[in-house]
Write a structure and sequence with these properties.
The chain is an alpha/beta fold. Among the domains are: about 100 residues, Luciferase, domain 3 (Roll), CATH 2.30.38; about 140 residues, Rossmann fold, CATH 3.40.50; about 100 residues, ANL, C-terminal domain (GMP Synthetase, Chain A, domain 3, 2-Layer Sandwich), CATH 3.30.300. About 30% of the residues lie in helices and about 25% in strands. The protein is built from 18 helices and 28 strands. α8 packs across α9.
């Protein structure tokens, strides 16, 4: 189990030599492990951050970064993947400022109040997010596919002053919540110059103030509202800028041109921390975000081809589909330079298969949580990306521990550990500030982090721990299998049996016994798949995570 926390960022008045000083002698320069404190430290260069006491919103910080970004004339900030409608940078900035004025003067929103945002990924959504955060209002984006009961729970958690919603959502929210329908005449007036009347006053918002309330995925229980500060998001933007500088520096040393500003296809919803952060990152660096209202694999391939997309953030199933898809081979995907993988562990076999099919596409693996404001670790540059199976090295300003639950021992490189399932904030955050992530993982001797599986999803077979992701990687590597998921099935004798749900490739005649044998060849006997069901699709969250609870319930209800 990996626990992480952000160490206090450096102050800008510190000399640069101090900001990038080498680690203390007690910290291993290779792994980042400090034997004295049993803690892993980030070995990434520490970039410059604004002083913590300076009032500053993440929107203002992103725009300050944008002012120094190498913006190509005519480069759009946003593009709608379905229609091709683009929002150039000058228009984007003007629309943010105009809408901020309308929110301040017409709606009377003030710093610290919460605005629920429940809509697909429309072009208006990033404008709204930036406008809200620029005046210190807390953005709380939620899934437009949720039910009335789920919205009632989220409203109890966040207590919004107003909700900006898609038309079909308004009727599902509690009646006491004031709603503004995005795209309506009311919203258009707020976003117009006359609606705003004037630019809002500069709000003295502390960096420690909450910028966003994001909801956890809820794949193992009811969603939780996670408060993320302006400082959290500023530090993450700075981290991405540092990584870009590292890649550019390495390219220059190799006598190569640095990569161009990214054109990022964002099929991940903007209410998820991954999509939310990708837009912040893209805007702050003067890049282009191509937004999809909802994920569709073939539509995503078309968008890559049409808009010459260079960066694709995605969950592992998308990468698996690209390897096995004839449609992917028919499309011109030559613009694609990087695919960023998050949301679940990526198996070595699948990564190597992808590299064989798309040798010019760099796989960047990363790991983060809503509770950590996004990235905890990532690979940076082509060399690190060759560490298949790893999610990279700790991000700057981070420390981590691997903890054995049975003994409380803090483990070193190569040792795996985990702790219990936190259900409350008190259990999630330790008294001394560590975040318990709920993941089974380890660091190797070179400081690369490996995620074995989610502790909450481990299958308990006769007292043995069986990680579903390990079995899924094996199944997904078979050419006859389009997709697969493994879940626990209750059994009186064993406790739980590993059960596989499998989507066959079109035309494949794979049998249950062949699936069982496929896994059995590669794992210890206790890890074998013992039940199989063939289905047309694996249910997933909007961020691409397998909905294991749904599959487990389906298996039991159907007596499979």
């Amino acid at each position: 189990m990996e626990e992480s926390r952000r160490s206090p960022p450096p102050r800008t008045h510190m000399p640069m030599a101090d900001q990038q000083r080498p680690p203390p002698a007690s910290i291993d320069r290779r792994s980042g492990f400090c034997a004295a404190t049993r803690t892993f430290h980030s070995l990434r260069p520490v970039g410059t951050l604004p002083p913590e006491e300076l009032p500053l919103t993440v929107a203002a910080y992103a725009f300050s970064m944008l002012s120094s970004a190498p913006i190509v004339p005519g480069r759009p900030a946003l593009v709608d993947a379905a229609t091709g409608i683009a929002v150039p940078y000058p228009s984007f900035v003007a629309r943010v400022r105009s809408l901020a004025g309308g929110l301040w003067f017409s709606l009377g929103l003030r710093p610290g109040e919460v605005a629920l945002v429940v809509t697909p990924s429309l072009l208006d959504v990033p404008v709204l997010h930036f406008a809200l955060m620029s005046i210190g209002v807390v953005v709380s984006p939620a899934n437009p596919a949720s039910t009335a009961d789920e919205y009632a729970h989220q409203v109890r958690l966040s207590r919004p002053a107003v909700a900006f919603v898609a038309p079909e959502v308004a009727a599902k929210l509690p009646r006491h919540v004031s709603c503004v329908v995005i795209g309506s005449e009311v919203f258009r007036r707020l976003a117009s110059a006359t609606g705003g009347a004037a630019a809002p006053p500069v709000a003295a918002v502390k960096q420690s103030s909450t910028a966003a309330l994001l909801y956890s995925s809820g794949t193992t229980g009811r969603v939780k509202a996670v408060a993320i500060t302006h400082r959290n998001l500023i530090a993450l933007i700075a981290m991405h800028a540092d990584n870009r500088e590292k890649v550019a520096r390495e390219a220059a040393e190799a006598g190569e041109q640095p990569p161009p500003p990214a054109v990022t296809l964002i099929p991940i919803p903007l209410f998820h921390v991954f999509g939310f952060m990708m837009v912040l990152r893209s805007v702050s660096m003067g890049e282009t975000s191509v937004l999809m209202e909802r994920f569709d694999f073939v539509a995503a391939l078309r968008a890559i081809e049409r808009y010459r997309v260079t960066l694709l953030p995605a969950a592992p199933p998308v990468l698996v589909a690209m390897v096995k898809s004839e449609e992917a081979r028919r499309r011109d995907l030559s613009s694609l330079l990087v695919i960023g993988i998050g949301g679940a562990p990526l198996g070595r076999e699948v990564a190597e298969q992808f590299a064989a099919v798309f040798p010019d596409v760099e796989i960047v693996q990363g790991y983060g949580l809503t509770e950590s404001s996004g990235a905890v670790a990532a690979t940076v540059g082509p060399e690190e990306s060759k560490a298949y199976g790893s999610v990279g090295k700790l991000a700057s300003h981070l420390q981590a521990k691997i903890v054995d639950p049975s003994t409380g021992e803090e483990l070193g490189p190569g040792q795996r550990g985990y702790v219990g399932d936190p259900e409350t904030t008190a259990a999630t955050i330790t008294p001394d500030g560590w975040l318990r992530t709920g993941d089974l993982c380890y660091f190797n001797d070179d400081g690369f982090l490996y995620i074995v599986d989610r502790l909450k999803e481990m299958i308990k077979y006769k007292g043995y721990q069986v990680p579903p992701a390990e079995l899924e990687h094996i199944l997904q590597s078979r050419p006859e299998i389009a997709d697969a998921a493994v879940v626990p099935y209750p059994d009186e004798e064993a406790g739980q049996l590993p059960m596989a749900f499998v989507v066959r490739q079109p035309g494949a005649n794979l049998t249950e016994q062949q699936v069982i044998n496929c896994v059995a060849k590669h794992v210890a006997p206790y890890k074998k798949v013992r039940r199989v069901a063939f289905v047309s699709a694996i249910p997933k969250s909007p961020a691409g995570k397998i909905l294991r609870r749904e599959l487990a319930q389906q298996a039991v209800a159907s007596r499979l």
